[in-house]
């Protein structure tokens, strides 16, 4: 029997850890790495508890951004579906953007403190892709005068060079109080006065660069508002939103050096950034910000080599469609994980957490998903505690757990999927859906023609139930490439089920399936 009261522990994954660690050991790499797989297979756990401690010691420096939670290792339980944990307060693009920029600024501070980045490095990176003379001239104007000046940028005097303007702007920034861009009292204590002055100048240069790019983005606000109103696309406007984080990436990548300074960037739950909300009309949409940032990471890696960037996600979009959208089948280094095999899970679980008899039941009903196994084990521990009256039988504990999944995960996700299907019907009526998606014979070809909410709801429910029943008949496995079944990706019911996170679209092998066997059993009910 499993030992009573034994706490759950993080079990190493040597092969996967070695693959990710070897990628991150390079100071600069030509491609970002996409670490993807369904919910609950241990991606965040592996990064946080196994790899992050190894990457936190010098010469390594790591910026870990968890877009799902404000703190990297939030105690809040990770959701099973892709729906926001709190629908009343969805993720804001403004907040996620600040989170990304703050993490990269922390890496830049580490680079400055070890002497890897100076003021000239910042100016060189800024001048490569931006004209900065006008913005620097404006920065040198006193704030009171600047606020009353016209919004049209004034031309600088032709006799003033960019390096001279830059030196004056940096000198002015050194004497300003800014806790975000200054050397603290406890930092650089073993450095000489000259070294500390060099570091302070570099921090001031970063501040000036941020102000210059912020000013240039401000000049484009009305153009962005017009782009959002008309629904058009402008690469220069999209890039203006990501200029600051990408400048920091450029500076850090050029400063990276083996055994001296090796920065890394980890974007956990990067799908949250793509689906964030943006209510400010003068900001680019979240999907455009997401695409622009990733495009520029790819370009930096291909042209100059970039610091290691690991993007972790549970969204099936990144398994297949992201490679299509970004234009090349191998645009990312793909590392897809599905957790343990049944044999591996049995090796780790039996005798330590479950008895042989208990494991046979757990494996048959729930499978080897690590997060579901940990949740079942916690329920088992509560059931065995004398002060809590729970069912002690493993079958009854699993029934209770499945009922919890049905009520708290599957039912809310299905309601959201129904709303998505109703939105699809509305989009068809308004002509927003291309006709090629409603091919002859498709069951979703004829949505309701009038704007009747009841009729639209009934149609959506029929579509969803018909899809689930057909999916059950296929034994929950459709190989959309090998079976030439790509039309399933046009089915609005399939798309909705993947959007809410109940189904996962694998890359290799190319199956569409429920994220866990427990979710599968809930869908079959």
Short recap of the structure:
With 525 residues, the chain is of the alpha/beta class. The protein contains 21 helices and eight strands. The protein is globular and about 75 Å long.
Q: Could you name the key traits of this structure?
A:
525 residues, alpha/beta, five-stranded parallel sheet, three-stranded antiparallel sheet, globular, Embryo defective 1381
What kind of sheet is the major sheet?
Answer: 5 strands, parallel
Give average pLDDT, whole number. Answer: 89
- DSSP summary: helix tally: 21
Helix content: 40-55%
Regions with little confidence, pLDDT below 50 for 5+ residues: none
Protein name: Embryo defective 1381
Q: Overview of this structure, please?
A:
This is Embryo defective 1381. It is a single chain. The protein is an alpha/beta fold and 525 residues long. It folds into two domains: 16-68 and 91-142 and 162-326, no CATH class; 344-524, no CATH class. Helix content is 51%, strand content 7%. It has 21 helices and eight strands. The chain has helices at residues 14-24, 43-51, 93-113, 119-129, 133-139, 143-148, 162-174, 193-219, 221-230, 235-241, 243-255, 271-274, 286-303, 321-325, 342-349, 356-365, 370-384, 394-429, 453-473, 492-499, 517-524; strands spanning 33-36, 60-66, 262-268, 309-313, 333-336, 478-479, 503-505, 511-514. The strands form two sheets. The protein has a five-stranded parallel β-sheet, with helices on one face. The chain has a three-stranded antiparallel β-sheet with strand order 6-8-7. A hairpin with a 5-residue loop joins strand 7 (503-505) and strand 8 (511-514). Helix 18 (394-429) crosses helix 20. The protein starts with 13 loop residues before the first helix and ends with a helix. The model has no long low-confidence stretch (mean pLDDT 89).
